[in-house]
Structure formats: structure tokens, C-alpha cells
Design goal:
Number of strands: 15
Number of helices: 17
Strand content: 15-25%
Family: Belongs to the RecN family.
Protein name: DNA repair protein RecN
Pfam families: SMC_N
Shape: elongated
InterPro entries: DNA_recomb/repair_RecN, P-loop_NTPase, RecF/RecN/SMC_N
CATH topology of the domain at 1-129 and 458-519: Rossmann fold
Structural class: alpha/beta
Oligomer: single chain
CATH superfamily of the domain at 1-129 and 458-519: P-loop containing nucleotide triphosphate hydrolases
Radius of gyration: 45 Å
CATH architecture of the domain at 1-129 and 458-519: 3-Layer(aba) Sandwich
Keywords: ATP-binding, Coiled coil, DNA damage, DNA repair, Nucleotide-binding
Strand order of the largest sheet: 2-1-4-5-6-7
CATH class of the domain at 1-129 and 458-519: Alpha Beta
Length: 550
Amino acid sequence: MLTLLSIKNFALIEQLEMNFSNQFSIITGETGAGKSILLGALGLVLGNRADLTSLKDKEQKCVIEAHFDLTKYNLKDFFDANDLDYEDSTIIRREILPSGKSRAFINDSPVNLTELQDLGEFLIDIHSQHQTRELTEEAYQIEILDAIANHQNLLSEYKQHLSAFKSVKNELKKLQTEKESLSKEADYNAFLLEELLSANLKEGEQSELESTYEKLNNVEFIKENLDKSLALANEEEIGIIQSLKEIKNSLQKVSNLSDDYKNLSDRVSSVLIEFDDIAKEILLQGEKLFNDPEKLELVSQKLQMIYNLQKKHNVGSVEELLVIQNDLDSKVVLADDLDNQIKKLIQKQEEINLVLEEMSSKISENRKVAVPVLVDQIIEVLSQLGMPNARFQFEIKTSDSFLPTGKDEIQLLFSANKGTDFGLLKKVASGGEMSRIMLAVKSILANYSKLPTIIFDEIDTGVSGEIAQKMGDIMKVMSSKMQVFAITHLPQIAAKGNQHYKVFKSDKEDTTVSELKLLGTEERVIEIAEMLSGKDISESAITHAKALLN
């Protein structure tokens, strides 16, 4: 419920703050006094779009803040789902900056307008004579019947199964599409895989093959240079090894004279050992070399096969070809496994389908039982509201597919007078009739479900006398279960409120501002008397106002 509303720099309001009770509150005021401004401010808190025209002072920001008591609304799951801090006393704030930008906060956490709108649906229902279209919508008519049927647990379970059904259906469609695609590519994929498998590729073999190819393709050139290197190393008179031996002997002769010479001698010894080993390795490599045209041809063919595959698959290494090979292998295996997966999903879909059929049938039965209960109650309320001949029919048809709330497709038919045929509610009911029907529905729903705060905005337009009295009585009864506001011009309704607020204009220096005031007992008498007789209040109007209040 709304416990506090604070408005700053909005339209004709400079600064306003008002506390509200959890009962029946009346708001009155002359036409143009600013009642619509209050609704506009609430609309911003509930997520309506705003612009700079909302600012009274274009140089200052507009701030609208509403406090709500959420103790009985079970909204913690909503806050968790939207990653918001839950508080029993929740504060929604909307700011419009002079730049035209808008910001919104829930318990000081920034939110977007969608989140604000989603939360607002749980908090306030602003209802006017021009906002009865909701009653003509099938989803709302089903919601009314479901409240009377009192099968929320069944509906919740149905929705869970429907969600699972849709997930299975989507997965099945995905696999079937994948199978169709794989089937078209199956032969080509199998050919590509066989081609790669026959190449018998191994990681790292390309560089090894390329090295082997270079050796085999350049045997004479390599042999010539190895022999030349070996000759330079081992020549008896001036070979490198012989020269190193002589250097070693010379240094050994002076090595005992200084550590510097000894170090040089040791280093030459190490070089001699290393170079001797190099010479032996050159000899060994030379002995390994021989012409092998057949092996050269095999290596050349294998390399050409690798190069062709790399070009075909647009890659640059054997490792990348192996990745493609594994992927193709997976596709071939997947194509074989898809049939089993599809078969299992079809079976699962059929099982859930049977459950949904059973549940939707039970939901439909509950609604059919609820129809006469709802119709009787609406007719009873409307009879008090001057529509004694109103009649209703619910046409319930079964859809071929599962809908969000079952398989029922509903049309609400209405006849206002004896002897007239039934027609679709949205086509045959007048604006005044729709307002009274909506009031009747809301009053009935208040007995079955937790409704948000409701604001009736002049839905009493066009009625008076006894009917107005009955409308006030109905709202009063509703307020025992929920917070109700009524913006009204009728004294009969105004007198029913537990609290009475007046919207009025006043002049402050060279500007006009709208203000809201909670009226005391005597002020209520004067306000209602003025509603009865105009500005020139008579004694009889005072007496009548006191009688209404009593």
C-alpha cells in the first residue's frame, strides 16, 4: 500500500508531502485544481515516460518519491529476480533533470523503466472511466475466472510443465534441423573424413618430412661439404685438430707459470675435445648419406598430399588438419547419434503433452464451475448499481495448442437490457456500464485475491443519488481488504471515506501552485456542503453534509 507521496517541482506543485492510511481515502477538488497532476506524478513513479514539460522550474530537477508497505504482497521473489534489495518499506524515486534526462531508483538502486513498470503492476491500479479496456481483454477475463476458481497452485504447476514442454519442443526442433543439415552434408563429410584418415596424419610430421626431403634432395651437395669440412679438420700437417693439439702443447709448457696461462690451456683442451667430437659427428653424418630415390619420392608424395589438404581446407599446419578431422569425425558420429536423441525427445514431449492435456482439462473444468459463481456475484452488484437487467455469458472454446494459462479461449458476452441479444462486452457496453462492471469485478476480486492499491478516478461520472451511494458503499467495503482511493465529484461518495484530501490552487507571489490538504472534521463538512450547493453554502447543505458523514 502507498504510505507516503512526496512531489517536488512537478507541474503546478512546488513541494508536497502527504501520508496515507490503509483504508478508504477520498480526493476532491474543483476541475483543474490539480487532481490529474497527482495521478501524473504517480504515473511517473510507476514508470511512465517524462519530459521537460513536467518541470515547474526548468532550472531545478523534479523529484517524485513514493513509499510503499510491501509486507503483505509477497514480492521478495520479484526483488531477487531483478537483483534488488528488498525492504518491507520500499521507496521508489523518480528524478527528471533539467537536461531532460530521467532516472529511477528502487530502494536507492538504479533501475530502468521496464523494471519500474513491472513492479508498479503489483502496487497500484489506476482506474478511470476511460481505462476499462482491460476488462474486454481475454487475458484479464481469464485472470478473473482463475481468481474465483482459486486454482493458482494448479496454474503454477501447469506453467512449469508448459515451460518444460516448450524447452523440449525447441530442443527437438533444433536437433531435427541439425539432422536435416547433417544429412545433406553427410556424404561430403564422410568423403572428407576418409581423405584425411587415409593421409594418416601425425602431429609434427610435416617439419620432419620437410627436413628429410631437403636432405634426400641435396645428397651430393651435403656430402661434398661434409667431406670438405672433415678434410679441413683432420689434415695431417695443417688440419684444425693438429693445429689445436700444437696450441695445447705450447700452452701446457707455460701453464705452471701463471693461472692465466693455465686457464688458456684448459680452454684450448676443452675446444679440442669439443671439436674432435664435432669431427666424428661430421664423419657419422657423411656415412649416413646415400642416394635413395624411392624414399625421396615417397616423402615428396606425402608432403604434396599434406600441402593439397592444407590448401583444400584453407589451413597451414597438420595440427589444424587434425582438428578438422576430429570435427568431421564428431559430425559423422553425431549424425548416427541424433536419431536416438530425437527419439528420446519425442517420447518426452508426448509424456509432457499428456500431463498438460490432463491439467488444462482440469483448469477448464474449474473455470466452468467458477463462471456461474462469478456471473451471479457481478449481477448482484450491478443490480445495486442501477443495472438490474444485466446478463453475462462466458463462451469457452478449446484451443488446438497449449496457451500460457491452459487451452481455453474465452469471450465475455453481455446484455444490458431485457429482450436484447448478447454481444461482445467491448462492443455493446457503454462507457458508464463498463465503469460499473469494472467496479463490480474489482469488488468481487477483492474477496479472492490480494489486489494492489486501487485508485478510482471519477468512475462515478454520469451517476448520482442512490447509485452514487451504492458505489460509495462498494468502495468502502473493498477498503476493508485493500487500500482504496476515490477521486470524485459526488458528495455521496466523498462522505464514505475514512480520510478526505482536498486538491486546491493558491497564488504565491506571481505563480499559481497546486496543493493537497488532509481535511479535518469541520473542513470535511464544508467541503461536502460545497459539493452539494456550490460556493454559496446554505444551512441545509451543511445539515445534509453532516447527515451524509454520519
